[in-house]
Amino acid sequence: MKKAVLLFYCLFLSFVVFAEDGYQLWLRYYLIDNKNLLEQYRAAITGIQINGNTPGLEAAKEEIITGLSGLLGKKIPLQKEFTTGTLLIGTPASSNQIKSLSLPQLQKTGDEGFSITTLKRNGKNIIAIAANTDAGVLYGVFHFLRLLQTHQGIQNLSIVSVPKVRNRILNHWDNLDRTVERGYAGFSIWDWHKLPDYIDPRYKDYARANASIGINGTVLTNVNANALVLTPQYLEKVAALASIFRPYGIKVYLTARFSAPVEIGGLKTADPLDHQVQQWWKDKAKEIYQYIPDFGGFLVKANSEGQPGPQNYGRNHAEGANMLADALAPYKGIVMWRAFVYSGETPEDRFKQAYSEFKPLDGKFRPNVMVQVKNGPIDFQPREPFHPLFGAMPQTPLMMEFQLTQEYLGQGTNLVYEAPMFKEVLDADTYAKGKGSTVANVIDGRLDGHTLTGMAAVSNIGTDRNWTGHLFGQANWYALGRLAWDHTLTSEKIADEWVRQTFSNNTTLLNSIKSIMLSSHEAMVNYMTPLGLHHIMGYSHHYGPAPWWDKAPRADWNPVYFHKADSLGIGFDRTSKGSNALAQYTPEVRKRFEDISTCPEEYLLWFHHVSWKYKMKSGRTLWEEMCYKYNEGVKAVRAMQAQWAGMEKAIDKERFEHVKMLLNIQEKEAVWWRDACLLYFQTFSKMPIPAQYEQPAHTLEYYESLKFPNAPGI
Ligand code: GCV
């Protein structure tokens, strides 16, 4: 009887521990399933030598022990002596052994980089994971574990890795009541009510996951900010989170509501040039640093979409940002001031407004201010040209803002691997200082000699067991970290790493999942917004198609403002004959987009109002091409479904079914987007949907009648 109970208990435990619900992310550390490789690894790693007991080194030690015992299926002992196969880990300060190696590469690794080197010590082959700081050591440990997880050879290692960007940050749009703006993975993981006394184990796993991909900062709160988070009641809670994240090299940041001096400070104004207001922020900064000595700083959305800002007092963005920067400067804090501004009262093309406001302020910001710019000029659309501010403010460090949460990319149900979209922008050439002035080189500081650099992304994390709602959302979180560390990595390489760690190293499976991922972004662009269409989604909740919508309280929230379809054609003329937004780019970029014959077709309707009968490169008319692209999008999703179905036997049931059901939803939504958009645009083109394509199952009136008052994420 006892035995049976024990057996049941063991079975239950193994189910709990090994259930493939996605919680473990890419840090699964399962036994290496290739026998030869396992033997090689076991022979090459026989002991761990890691001295020092700082929280950072303790975290590194715990991770390497956990990782190796899982991957190698046995406990690797901690050692004081060297044997063949010792893994020597540390900094010159923590380890005399590391110090005595005098590794020349540590001169290049700075305060976050690391080296992993195969060496001979006392006649024995050892591997040294070395860095100048605890954070560097931790990054090195995670990198080493990744080599094993992805089945790489570990003979003759000579790796030196240094992040290209200094601040690698997640922006949580999380509210204090735990709702998440544009969140599709449950509620906020920050349990404010129970903090600071209740520490959810997730906080540590969150920190581990971020550290494993090099993310070193987290903005805990929504940019549509609540001043309450700056009160002692909440600062105590923030401090508790900061102490969990600190060993993992992660700093916390908060969003600063510009009107906080009025709302929680009792002042009559929040004017940045008012001495009392300035003093209030200085005192607030001092107070924050008493709670959190390594507080990172503020992220600010000001004078945008109803948020208060310096313009309420007739001041400009630099005056607002500088006031906060002065308050943070004594503690080395930074301000990330967002350039996502546009005003309902301004008749200027929304595309142009951020540039118009910020370009004249170049050189006017304090050295500890970064201007955080969204990847494109409108708002995280499926495909946007790069933001014209990149390359246009050489005296100001510009920070990239991507969006992981798929607000406009199918929200919680569509499989869209975002790395190709991020790369498209990072690799775009601004020509700011001649050919090769890529967006990546603007934000990594190389182009204009900035050392304060950063890349951020709006988080897609929530309380769902698998963190991101859609399992493949994890790949986007992963990709952000990897690209912020090294923007030269390819989308393919990042997908490869993620699939190997998350699913399997089996080549057939690997290639199949990768091919789904790598085709997914283009598929989505095709079934939602092909040929440069943008901002044609449902009003406010942004769910599904609504190109017909024209009832928003401001013109530039209406799809009709963006596509401008009429009997002649479709698209927003941003050439010199139209809004002339193209003048905000350098002449080389402008020229290419301005000339319809050189404008890449994927950006066509971003910049041109094009006749329905315009001949595309394919020989089809624009209308036919649109029908073709929408159908290609649907076709690609069906191909993804078929590919996934073919992997049923190779993937655990739980994750297989999860993705399969979501792909079914994605297919339905792709068809919905295609049919609703084609029927609507057809009212202008007056041309038939060619007979070779599936015809819409419903009328346009049907699609227009659909309502989603409870869509998530609002
Ligand atoms: C946080 C878009 C989103 C808003 C978001 C805003 C921003 O407009 O729909 O939810 O607000 O971007 O980036 O500030």
UniProtKB/TrEMBL annotation:
Cellular component terms (Gene Ontology): extracellular region
Active site per UniProt: E305 (proton donor), D379 (proton acceptor), E407 (proton acceptor)
InterPro entries given in the database record: A-glucoronidase_C_sf, GH, Glyco_hydro_67_aGlcAse, Glyco_hydro_67_aGlcAse_N, Glyco_hydro_67_C, Glyco_hydro_67_cat, Hex-like_dom2
Stretches assigned to the Glycosyl hydrolase family 67 catalytic domain: 148-467
Domain Glycosyl hydrolase family 67 C-terminal: 468-693
Keywords: Carbohydrate metabolism, Glycosidase, Hydrolase, Polysaccharide degradation, Xylan degradation
Superkingdom, natural source: Bacteria
EC number(s) from the headed UniProt entry: 3.2.1.131
Reaction catalyzed: Hydrolysis of (1->2)-alpha-D-(4-O-methyl)glucuronosyl links in the main chain of hardwood xylans
GO MF term list: alpha-glucuronidase activity; xylan alpha-1,2-glucuronosidase activity
BP terms from Gene Ontology: glucuronoxylan catabolic process
Range of residues in the leader sequence: none
Gene3D superfamilies in the cross-refs: Alpha-glucuronidase, C-terminal domain, Chitobiase/beta-hexosaminidase domain 2-like, Glycosidases
Residues in Alpha glucuronidase N-terminal domain copies: 25-144
Subunit structure, interactors included: Homodimer.
Family label: Belongs to the glycosyl hydrolase 67 family.
PANTHER family: ALPHA-GLUCURONIDASE A (PTHR39207)
Descriptive protein name: Xylan alpha-1,2-glucuronidase
